TrEMBL record:
<protein>
    <recommendedName>
        <fullName>Transcriptional coactivator p15 (PC4) C-terminal domain-containing protein</fullName>
    </recommendedName>
</protein>
<dbReference type="InterPro" id="IPR009044">
    <property type="entry name" value="ssDNA-bd_transcriptional_reg"/>
</dbReference>
<dbReference type="GO" id="GO:0003677">
    <property type="term" value="F:DNA binding"/>
</dbReference>
<dbReference type="GO" id="GO:0006355">
    <property type="term" value="P:regulation of DNA-templated transcription"/>
</dbReference>
Length: 81
């Protein structure tokens, strides 16, 4: 596996056009799961902002379980369809 960013997914965050981008990246000597908010600059380019987080891949399964639990809870409470 090359030591670079591997884009996984992106989604629109708001009406301004900000995006949430998910990737697997090599950072500080380790692979990380990275979620970052990108914003559009005045020249139309998308740039990463400070908002977001990264966790080492050994925590990814635990994080995915937490997100799945949050999704199931939100659905069961009628917060999502």
């Amino acid at each position: 596996m090359s030591k670079s960013s591997m884009p996984i997914a992106s989604m629109r965050k708001n009406l301004r056009g900000d995006e949430i981008r998910v990737s697997l990246d090599f950072f500080a000597g380790a692979y990380v799961f990275n979620t970052r908010v990108f914003f559009e600059t005045t020249d139309g380019a998308m740039r990463p902002g400070k908002d977001g987080f990264a966790i080492k891949l050994d925590k990814l399964e635990e994080y995915a379980a937490a997100v799945t639990t949050a999704l199931m809870t939100a659905k069961s409470k009628g917060l999502l369809k």
